[in-house]
Queue: 3 jobs
Job 1
Amino acid sequence: MTKLYDFSARTIDGEETDLSEYRGQAVLVVNTASKCGFTPQYEGLEELYETYAEQGLVVLGFPCDQFRNQEPGDEGEIQEFCQVNYGVSFPMFSKIDVNGDAAHPLYQWLRSQKGGVLSSKIKWNFTKFLIGRDGEPIKRYASTTKPEKLKGDIEAALGS
């Protein structure tokens, strides 16, 4: 059975990273963008990371430019924006596609495991997936779901 740990991704610094590095942690995977109405969620995501990191939560940010060109920058610009404006310290990855034929394999898997209401396609930036310590997806959250609303589910995932 496929798990989060079966994938790898390129960090925003260009390093190929095996996601098995996060084995045993609860993981929140988020497709992000710098010029989106939901961009202020970076603040809440960073707060979740700071609050729960010592208990075993990691947030993984995957910039995506598939929704109205809301992530036009290169990796350096994205990284600077996140750090300067939101103090992002959680791991960020290189820009990827989350839908279509070129979708990153991680997102193909996440969509197949936790489809949306009408289809499995990611509908917008800041769609969130909570992965349990066992590497299996627990829940998918819409872009409109604010990070602070995930606290109960995160605490349950960390407790397991």
Job 2
Amino acid sequence: MSARLHLVRHGQTPSNVAGALDTALPGAPLTELGRTQAETVGDELAGSGISPSVVLCSEAARARETAGLIAEAMGLSTQAVPGMYEVQAGQFEMRTGAEALLAYNRVVRDWLEDGELTACLPGGESAHDVRDRAMPVVSELRESYLDNGTDVVLVVHGTLMRMIAVFAGAVPSQWALDNRIPNCGVIELAPDRGGWSCERWGDHLGRPQF
């Protein structure tokens, strides 16, 4: 089996519990449940037969902490990767309640359902902004690790993970919109000729059927 990119969402945080749009760095740490989730996915990855050389992560505190617990299970070190933070909420940062969540989700729907890639929240990011910062990193990981037979584990964020999978051409936009990623859920992407295929989505083991 060829080397693959394993995108892992961080574990639960107090902001997740409160329903707060926590997207700016450094962000909240993990809850006790979040740490348990990270340990569980770490044990799963350690027993899966993959062979990363390091556990990579975004610079957010929750991603660093999740990556550390995964790395401990796998006997590896961790390394933060700039530019892989969550899709930014702009002026809605750390707001809770239906209005803020609906506004954030509406922008993601504009991108994935309507193809309006320039849409953004006030002070936030467009889909073009997200693509321009994230996809060069994905390309570099493919060239530096996957093409040399080394798996990659990269701990990042739920909305960013879905957008990466769409930008990579690995899943349909509507699938990414309809299927959110739970805390410590995994998206597994495999190089497929010049593109990518999706071999796992969220907590669904096995290749998803679109």
Job 3
Amino acid sequence: MIVWINGAFGSGKTTTAGELVELVPNSTLYDPELTGAELHRLLPAKQLDEVDDYQDLPIWRRLVVDTAAAMLAQLGGVLVVPMTLLRQEYRDEIFGGLAARRIPVRQVLLRPDETILRARIEARGEPEARGELEAQGELEGRAANGADGDTAEARGPGAGPVRRQWSYDRIEPYRTALEWISDDAFVIDNGALDPRQTAHRIAEAVRTGEAPVCTIVQTPEPVAETLAAGVLLFDDADRVLLVDPTYKPGWEFPGGVVEPGEAPARAGMREVTEELGLALDRVPRLLVVDWEPPRPPGYGGLRLLFDGGTIGSAEAERVRLPADELRRWRFVGEREAARLLPPPRYERLRWALRARERGVVLNLEGGVPVG
């Protein structure tokens, strides 16, 4: 199990996490800040210059999942992770990756009053607050383009104003993120609590189940090539329906992995019912067969897209999404689909639309027609 401590910069996540591992038996601290610091040493400067925060690096998000899973496999017990996540798609990607490994995550949000938060940020940048700064996790406030918290320059007093301003600039994104964070997090107002008291509150909430397991779900990661079936549904303007998964970045078609012994077209129909609450009245027609080559850590496999036909406005009003898997849906034209879909999925869609126009079935390899 993972106890993920979220909150604004300066909310006291790291000090609380340190106290929590003293209270929870067989628990270990993992700070993803350390993974970010290592990437500053490993990646070319050009790549680092392209982002404002190492969280924007896909490799960081992947390594956080892989590192947490590897630590639990090695050590067992409970992993305590203090880390601010203010972008919902990043939270979903990381928690979805953990869910794919059958690792439950209990998210705790530390939410002191903003006046207290600002006072803490101000104090953390002052030289005389060094002891407190170290205790609260100095690396939390550094900007990805400035500074490696392990360097002498970043640790010196001169880095204080930069560190403070970086934290202040993230208060507004924190306010914006509060609504979705609070949906599945156990919220603690720790403004009047010290880290030890806050840790006791978290430990009790985890023990009693008051801090719930996040409901993001994901099918287990494949161990070999997979067969997946997607279904394209259209409105009267021939726009295609896409869904936004909670557990991975990028939009997708309704569909999923074909279960053993299941016919692919029937699997697509099942997924439409499970994901949208709609029952197709006919077996959909095949449009494309796309062989997706393995790209580590993925195994690839066959991806089929079917034509589910047109759904009217009355049917569209009956769409109901499973909140733990999909956050929204919409009809989009081909140009908008190119912006929302990852490139391999868009290529698959593009050729599926051409196949639908021509009344043929196309064979693709990596999104490119062959034969």
